[in-house]
Each structure stands twice: as C-alpha cells, then as structure tokens.
Design a protein that fits this description.
It contains 6 helices and 13 strands. It is α+β, with helices and mostly antiparallel strands. The strands form 5 sheets. The protein has a 4-stranded antiparallel β-sheet, with helices on one face. Strands 1-3-2 form a 3-stranded antiparallel β-sheet. Strands 7-8 form a two-stranded antiparallel sheet.
Length: 324
Amino acid sequence: MWDTTLIVYSADNGGVGSGINYPLRGEKHSNCAFFPLHNRLLFQALLLKSDFVDWAGEGGMRTAAFVSGGLIPSALRGTTNGVSCHISDWWATFAVLAGQEAKDDPPTPPLPGDHAEPYKNIYGDDSFPPLDGVDLWPMLTDPSSPIDSAHKHLVLSKEVLIAANYKLLVAQPFFKTQNNGWKDQNGTWSDENGGIPLADCAAQTLSPAESFFPVPHNASLRPCLFDLRKDPGERHDVAAQFPAIVDELWAALNATILTQRDCAGWSYKGTSGEIPGPLDPSTNATGCSPPAKLGKCDAACAKSMWKAKFGNQDGPICDVPSCT
C-alpha cells in the first residue's frame, strides 16, 4: 500500500495571536507575507509551498506543506520545491493520479466580464466557473520547474496577486482587525520598518459598497509591489521602479475579480449586486446552485438547530434533515 500511496499534509493558515511568523510580515486576516520556504523536514518528504486563500497575511497565507509516501521518487525525498501552488490544486492533482480528467467545465460558457457592469450576471442559469486547480504532479517531480509553472497569475484574495517572484498588494481586506507589522522572534510587534512607516498598502481597502474592485483606501494611491525572492519580509516597495509590472498585475487582478461568484454573498452586502448565478423563483434571488439541486431550504430552522447543537449558527441551511 505504501508503494502506491501519496500523503499530503498542509497547514491551514499562518500564526495569529501568540503565533510567530518571523521573518514574515503580518498574521492571519492580513494580506501580508509570502515567501518560498527553504527549511527541511527531518524525515523523508518533499517540502512544498501551498497557499490557502484564507484572507490571511503572508504570515497567514503562506503555509508549510509536505508530500510523502512511496509514490514520491526516492531521488526527491528530503528536497524542497518552490513552485507557487494553491490548496485547490490538490483536487486536480488527485484526480489525475486517480486516472480522471481534472475538469468541470460548464455546459454553457459564461459571458465576458465587463468593467462598466461589475455586477452583471455572467453565469445565469446554465453556466458556472470552471475549475481553477492545476495538476501539480509534473512540477512536483521536476525540481527545475519555474516558480510560476502552475499559475502565471495566482490570485490569493481580492487584493493580492502573485506572479513569479512578484507580489502585488493593493490593500488589506475590509473586515476584521489585522496586525500588518513585523513580529520578532521574541514575539514583539513593530510597526516601523527601520524607521520607515508602514506602506500605504497596509491600510484596509474600501468597503464593497464603495468599490467592487480592489482599490487602495485612498483612490490617489497605487498598489505596492514586492520582490519576494529578494525581500520575503515585504519591507521594500518597488512599485515605483516597475510601473509596467504593477499595471499588468493590477489589470489581471481586476479581470479575475470580475469572474468571482462569492456564494456567501458577503462582498455584495450594501451594494446593488447579487450572487451571479441561477434565479430561485420562490425567493426571487440568485445563488450559486439551481434550486432543484439544493433541496428544501429553511434558513430559520437550520440556524436554530445548529445554534442549539453547537452554540453558533454556522452550517448548511438547505436539505437539513430535521428542517424538512
């Protein structure tokens, strides 16, 4: 069994509270800190970079992962791999290893996004976003693979895009509290960067009601750009040196955001937008799944049940057995 097994272990997000992400910047809930790992594990495994979209800082977005098992070629055991990958890539990788096609394309292609109509329903009743995940196995078994082999542009949040060694950081997410400074190894926070204050991209972005697109908190500002190979702690903004790269990556990020569907709908609250998907005639609201696929939905009953069982309302609201 070991000879034909692949084991994947990935952390969820980086440290928060008493956690220390040194030498990275920020912590969970922020958009800071992203760098390639270079430490080695003490057992035979291939160490990976695996990035989880958790609205976390590089001290939170950047997580450690490893793969093991007999399926890993012996020559690769104990080595590291620097390809930028995403947690959603594992599904595609597992599918291919299992002999399946890692695709789930909609029967009808979505309409093109339109910057003039950001809330346009590009999916309608018959379309949905195709899979973003990439089969990582060719990159994992070839240590010479370039850092951007899996994703030329890797969007980690509404305000963050990774492209090879560059990170575009527009702002911090508009929710929760964040610490965007640097924590020393002794656990002490500092908001100063060698006497230089935090960059403008350390401030939270505008609320969804103010802007659909990722913009700095001040419309006159531009995003920050960091070279993560040279500056993993994100202390030196090089946007002024490479304006063409900033423009390219910012355009790519905005184009990607146009295709979001945000099934929870929180990014549309306070706006004229709705989840771009099928219409439920019974509620006259759109959602991510056709009503027939959801089963009976009774939000009030479901939330009451989850709260009684677990102390909070988090849980499915559709097709809940005791709410039918």
